[in-house]
Model the fold of this input.
Amino acid sequence: MLCYAHFSDLELADLLKGKDEGAFTDIYNRYWAVLYCHARRLLLDDEEAEDLTQEVFLTLLNRSGDLELSSRCLVTCIRFRAIRFLSYRSR
Done:
């Protein structure tokens, strides 16, 4: 069994492109709290922030071959989704 904690984000991204479930789990564990906190700060709603964070990880899982994995990319994705959610909610 691989110890994913020692892999860089780039190495995990390569493994994720090969549909490595362990790599996805490690990415999730590394970034879930950070992304949730960003979403929560923008949305001011725990449940919506959790849903949005889950959506980002589902997108990452489903489009792992297309996406660049970096903390900046993931944070940008959560911000974009939160802003889009807020704009739809205000209509």
